[in-house]
Write a structure and sequence with these properties.
With about 425 residues, the chain is mainly alpha-helical. It is built from 14 helices and six strands. The chain folds into two domains: about 230 residues, Growth Hormone, Chain: A, CATH 1.20.1250; about 190 residues. It has a two-stranded antiparallel sheet. The chain is globular, with a radius of gyration of 23 Å. It starts with 7 loop residues before the first helix and ends in an 18-residue tail after the last helix.
Length: about 425
């Protein structure tokens, strides 16, 4: 492959890799995207979201076991390919079962629970949490130009379920006045264009496409020319005790060598954990408290547009896959500031600053969406750094992503459920708030 021009075979490989990575979180993200429709029939109502979030966190048991295996078998390489087979196949099976059993309830201690949905969601979370590690390890088998396919697939795992929900009419709410009451209104959900079962059937087809793509990559020669040739001499061994690893990066503007010390690698790993804790642990949990006070339309726009920010991050990564560590820190600092604004707004819910004003609506959307960009782009750059540090760089990158998501989810659960520090603004409820 030339430096600037790809063959059709290489473009096809990139597409197939993206479709493979589509299976990572599509199913769990799909369940959360479908919650407004699911809660209409299930006994837990909106508490079901908290149960699903807790179950998703329990899924981190699987990557933890994978890390233990990796540590115990230091001299042997853990092959991600059979793990990927298990992840995609069982994900397909669980999605297929959801088509028929998502609505089934079971009596436990004289109370109805959506046991089938929760059990299947637990298996999906086990597999999806594992995929964050195994897929990151798998992409290391390909040249560095294909690393961004992991992030494109990751972005689509949120975008496609949200688009399906939009087509379905999921989450569309209108406010109607309650009879015999002149001031009170209630939220009424619009009738969906197709059922929840059809929705899960669509997710099953997506995972099937992902599995077929994985088979094509493994059993044909399409991706053979795109794989990198690695050997023990490619990376420095621990016995060499050398503190620096040089990563050569050539850009159109200049040619420079970026040095990554062991300390820098540790700091980048911490930065990956930190950004992941916010993106995949905290933001999703506080979205209602940040966006809903500004109205149902702002909440709808914020939740629909936020997955597209990951696609924007992918585009930035294609244009500029590497930036200096100084700019990397700058992005994280700005992202931390915007997230602090999100957190402040959540603490002030249901009466945050500039509520019931147009500039307040614009402000909260900009702050909310920019947090994804300023913290998401550094994650992609960090992946490009660490994959060159060692042959296990992307494996531990995936571990750091899941560790961050787990930490963020635990913090969010403590803030929301245990300490009850946030007050939710419910649909169609009106609060008398000052403008600031």
């Amino acid at each position: 492959m030339s430096e600037n021009r790809w063959t059709w075979n290489e473009y096809l490989t990139y597409l197939l890799l993206t479709l493979v990575f589509l299976s990572s979180w599509t199913d769990i993200n799909g369940i959360f995207a479908e919650l407004p429709q699911i809660v209409l029939t299930q006994p837990e109502r909106w508490k079901l979201g908290a149960y699903l979030a807790l179950i998703t966190n329990c899924g981190n048991i699987a990557p933890l076991l994978l890390v233990l295996v990796k540590c115990l078998a230091k001299k042997q390489t853990v092959n991600p390919i059979p793990i990927n087979y298990v992840v995609i196949l069982i994900g397909m099976l669980a999605c297929f079962l959801l088509i028929f059993f998502w609505k089934k309830t079971t009596m436990i201690f004289n109370q109805q629970y959506s046991l089938a949905l929760l059990v299947l969601a637990f298996f999906l979370s086990l597999l999806d949490c594992t995929s964050s590690v195994s897929f990151a390890d798998y992409i290391q088998k390909y040249r560095k130009e294909y690393t961004s396919a992991l992030f494109l697939g990751e972005s689509l795992t949120s975008i496609i379920p949200s688009l399906l929900a939009i087509v379905q009419g999921n989450g569309q709410v209108r406010c109607e006045k309650i009879e015999n009451s002149s001031n009170r209104t209630e939220a009424v959900y619009e009738v969906a264009r197709f059922s929840v079962s059809i929705y899960f059937l669509c997710l099953f087809f997506l995972l099937t496409i992902s599995f077929i793509s994985f088979l094509i990559l493994q059993w044909t020669s399409i991706g053979s020319n795109s794989r990198q040739i690695t050997s023990k001499a490619t990376f420095k061994s621990k016995n060499e005790q050398q503190s620096e690893v040089a990563i050569a990066f050539i850009s159109e503007e200049n040619s420079s060598t970026i040095h990554l010390t062991k300390l820098s690698y540790i700091l980048l790993s911490f930065a990956c954990t930190y950004t992941s804790s916010i993106l995949f642990g905290l933001l999703l949990s506080i979205s209602t408290y940040v966006l809903m006070p500004y109205g149902q339309q702002i909440f709808y726009l914020g939740t629909i547009l936020s997955p597209w920010m990951f696609t924007l991050i992918w585009l930035l990564g294609m244009i500029k896959p590497m930036i200096s560590k100084r700019f990397l820190i700058g992005f994280i600092i700005v992202g931390t500031i915007t997230f602090s604004c999100d957190l402040f707004i959540a603490f002030r819910s249901p009466c945050p600053p500039f509520v019931h004003t147009n500039h307040g609506n614009v402000f909260v959307l900009i702050i909310w969406l920019s947090t994804y960009v300023f913290l998401g782009y550094p994650r992609l750059v960090i992946a490009n750094y660490v994959r060159n540090y060692s042959s296990n760089g992307m494996f531990w990158y995936g571990v750091n992503v899941q560790l961050g998501a787990l930490i963020g989810s635990i913090i969010a659960y403590l803030l929301v459920e245990t300490f009850s520090l946030f007050v939710e603004q419910k649909s169609c409820d009106e609060n008398l708030c000052s403008i600031f």
